[in-house]
Design goal:
- With 394 residues, the chain is α/β, with parallel strands linked by helices.
- It has three domains: 1-112, de novo design (two linked rop proteins) (Up-down Bundle), CATH 1.20.1440; 113-250 and 319-394, Rossmann fold (3-Layer(aba) Sandwich), CATH 3.40.50; 252-316, no CATH class.
- It is built from 16 helices and eight strands.
- An eight-stranded mixed beta sheet has the order 1-2-4-3-5-6-7-8, sandwiched between helices.
- Helix 15 links the parallel strand 7 (332-337) and strand 8 (357-362).
- Helix 2 (20-30) runs antiparallel to helix 3 (36-59), helix 3 (36-59) packs antiparallel against helix 4 and helix 4 packs antiparallel against helix 5.
- The termini are far apart.
Length: 394
């Protein structure tokens, strides 16, 4: 589990969101036998130290250095609280989240391109967001609207997407919806499957923004957002293009085959006795690998707002694309990385599309296998943004 979480920091070193040595020394202080308490303490210590560097640089007028330090500190605060996911929400998680937000936005005031914190009011709630612009001109530009996944937030999304976008002349709107970031941690708003009711109000806002070209808005979803964004695009026809990283299909095909049930019960699920999964839940709580326990019982129950493992799996079946995929009306790019377990449905989504479409595969041999091409983001960004350039035109 420490390997998994540590990589979540290290992956952004090439994007300005971390530094290799700072990550390595922090992991070493935690040690192989470190607990969640140790992990939190050491990552917060590193974050506090690096945030202090940012303070000193900012006070001395070193804007670039200040921005870079604050950005790294924000990543370290986020990584610190990941093992604490779950309900009731740990006060330490809230503290580190607040510090993450604070130092990032302190750094945003020093960034070389405008980063404007926003609250987008929608019928589904108030979504925290950032508008990242190429420059401070009044020019209306093509814009990436980036929707999040299952356990990330807009700061992590920033480093993985926004610098690449502005380098290529795109503005970028990053937002957290229900079950993501502040909405979950501070407001207790959990995930919902009807993502069209999340994205459409954001597009409404974007169309009123003078910096956004209304004819060239691209909706991009990463991680679980690769399921949510296509669902939204089937209803939202004002976008010029769609990217799903990775492409996905109905969650039933990911959830049900892995359940320790008879084939008959799998076919009927969730119309079975909920107690059938109680022994599995107890085993996960007491004996399973910590990563599995974190993924299902800490993160899963919290994000989906469920009480039991049965209810969690049953709720995942509501995340469907198959009934509406044929309604997607814009050019679409799907990614599929070798070894990414949630990308198995990408070919099904691809086959269902009746628009201009591309399925881009990433492989272990080229270093881009695994979830969301995390170890080869530059390759991902090159392929995806080249497609966006060609799709939108000059």
């Amino acid at each position: 589990m420490w390997e998994e979480f540590g990589r979540r920091a290290l992956l952004w070193a090439g994007c300005g969101g971390a530094d290799f040595g700072e990550c390595m020394t922090t992991v070493q202080r935690v040690g192989d036998e470190g607990t969640a308490d140790d992990w939190y303490r050491e990552w917060v210590a590193t974050a506090d130290r690096v945030a202090g560097i940012g303070d000193g640089c900012a006070q001395a007028g070193h804007r670039v250095s200040g921005w870079e330090a604050y950005g790294r500190a924000a990543t370290y605060y986020r990584v610190a609280y990941m093992p604490l996911f779950g309900t009731p929400v740990d006060p330490r998680l809230v503290h580190a989240f607040d510090r993450e937000t604070e130092v990032f936005e302190r750094g945003a005031a020093l960034a070389p391109h405008p980063i404007e914190p926003l609250d987008i009011d929608t019928p589904a709630g108030t979504f925290p967001a950032y508008l990242v612009r190429v420059d401070d001109s009044e020019r209306s530009r093509p814009t990436i609207v980036q929707t999040n996944g299952y356990d990330s937030n807009i700061r992590e999304m920033f480093f993985s997407h926004a610098p690449a976008a502005v380098r290529r002349g795109y503005n970028c709107v990053l937002f957290d919806g229900p079950g993501q970031g502040r909405n979950l941690i501070r407001d207790g708003v959990t995930m919902r499957p009807d993502w069209e009711n999340v994205v459409t109000p954001v597009i409404d806002w974007a169309l009123r923004c003078p910096y956004i070209d209304p004819e060239r808005i691209v909706l991009v979803g990463w991680s679980f957002g690769g399921n949510l964004a296509p669902r939204a695009a089937a209803f939202e026809h004002r976008i010029a293009a769609l990217v799903a990283d990775p492409g996905q299909w109905d969650q039933r095909q990911n959830v049900v085959p892995a359940l320790p049930l008879s084939e008959e019960d799998k076919a009927r699920f969730p119309d079975i006795d909920p107690q059938a999964l109680q022994p599995v839940e107890e085993w996960i709580r007491t004996e399973a690998d910590p990563s599995l326990r974190w993924r299902l019982l800490q993160r899963g129950l919290w994000v989906n707002g469920t009480e039991t493992l049965f209810d969690y799996f049953a709720s995942m079946l509501d995340y469907e694309i198959s009934p509406v995929a044929h309604e997607i009306s814009c050019p679409t790019l799907l990614t599929m990385a070798e070894g990414d377990p949630i990308s198995a449905g990408a070919p099904q989504l691809y086959d269902s599309l009746t628009v201009d479409k591309s399925l881009v595969r990433f492989t272990d041999a080229e270093g881009s296998g695994g979830h969301c091409e995390g170890t080869a983001r530059l390759l991902y960004l090159q392929r995806v943004f080249d497609w966006i350039d060609e799709t939108l035109g000059p």
